[in-house]
User: What shape does this take?
Amino acid sequence: MSKFPSKAKVVIIGQGGIVGASVVHHLIERGWDDIVGIDKSAIPTDIGSTAHASDFCFNTAHDQMTIFTTKYSIDFFEKMGRYERIGGIEVARKGDDERMDELKRRVTSGKAFGNRVRMMSTAEAKEKFPLLEEDVIQGALWDPDAGLVVPRSQTVAGELVEAAEKQAS
Ligand SMILES: Cc1cc2nc3c(=O)[nH]c(=O)nc-3n(C[C@H](O)[C@H](O)[C@H](O)COP(=O)(O)OP(=O)(O)OC[C@H]3O[C@@H](n4cnc5c(N)ncnc54)[C@H](O)[C@@H]3O)c2cc1C
Assistant: This one.
């Protein structure tokens, strides 16, 4: 292990999570150097949220910033060969009309921001996910661009830090 520096231009606390890893990657990409990353657990993290996440990217929020950052992340992971665009379903149970209205609102917001999200019938939802109990749902949302970071976002965090270390040495 290298000697712990007494000063640096940038200190990232929480280096082992996906956010710390992303920050160091993007700083180096923009020409920054003299960066120190520290973490109280491991790098990549073994106790942080990144180590527990389901690694799913779902781009159906109501605000443009969330849509922008999620789309950026999907493209970023895909370029690294770390994204599986498997699509995502959200369902509304029969009798839960508020949930059904919310899914329709999310489709409207998604379309306003240029997404391919749409509502689909219960039959189509069943076709896409055969384990679904079609008779207990009234409708479903389908986002064809949703998907999974593979094998884990924890792995990606480690790879980003490793690449940053290589570039800095
Ligand atoms: C069960 C679960 C499922 C999830 N599923 C999804 C999902 O499907 N899709 C999605 O987008 N998001 C999901 N999330 C949310 C996502 O995991 C987090 O938003 C993301 O991982 C946060 O990353 P982070 O780098 O900010 O934090 P973390 O991954 O928690 O990293 C923070 C790091 O900071 C370190 N640290 C903390 N305090 C200190 C300190 N004082 N000194 C030094 N180091 C410190 C910790 O050790 C840790 O390594 C899920 C979260 C959980 C818990």
Residues 13-14, 16-20, 38-41, 45, 47-50, 52-56 surround flavin-adenine dinucleotide (CB under 6 Å). The helical segments are 18-29, 64-79, 97-112, 122-128, 153-168. The mean pLDDT is 95.
